[in-house]
Amino acid sequence: MVLITIQTIVILLVSSCSPPTMTNPVTGEVDGAKIYKSYCKSCHGPKGDRGLSNAADLSKSSLEENEIRQIILYGTDNGMSAYKSVITEEKEIGALVKHVKSLQQ
Ligand code: HEC
């Protein structure tokens, strides 16, 4: 009985220490909106149109998905930083690109 309790505690500890993930625990899908919220919302705003620090208005942008991906990965010379060392999982980049594309009107 004591052993089972200890095992349970160990399992709980281990699972709560796993690295933060943007993956939905139920569906296993990566949540692009969540990634956007963590890294992009501060300048671009929830709908992409905040424009803080001269951030481009993503709702008025007409970039294709591959162009969005390049900008996220490598940044621009005009204030948009490169995120290739921050968002490293291909699945996360893909989900984020889709979310950014969905902000376009
Ligand atoms: C520090 C503020 C800041 C943050 C944080 C930021 N951006 Fe930007 N972003 C900018 C600025 C400034 C530009 C305009 C750059 C330019 O014109 O060269 C820009 C431009 C862009 C563009 C190009 C839009 C267009 O039509 O030209 C995309 C796409 C973009 N950002 C996506 C993102 C994503 C996705 C994130 C989160 C991973 C993010 N940005 C985080 C400041 C930011």
Quick description:
The chain has 105 residues and is mostly helical.
Query: What ligands does this structure carry?
Result: heme C
**Low-pLDDT regions:** none
Put simply, the count of helices is 5
The averaged pLDDT comes out at 87
Largest sheet entry? none
Report the top-level CATH class of the domain at 31-103.
Answer: Mainly Alpha
Query: Gap between N and C termini, in Å?
Result: 59 Å
CATH superfamily of the domain at 31-103: Cytochrome c-like domain
Structural class by helix and strand composition: mainly alpha
Radius of gyration: 18 Å
Report on the structure:
There is one protein chain. The protein has 105 residues and is mostly helical. The chain has a domain of 73 residues: Cytochrome c-like domain (Cytochrome Bc1 Complex, Chain D, domain 2). It contains 5 helices and no strands. Helix 2 crosses helix 5 and helix 4 crosses helix 5. The chain starts with a helix and ends with a helix. The mean pLDDT is 87. Bound molecules: heme C. The site of heme C (HEC) has 22 residues, from helix 3, helix 4 and helix 5.
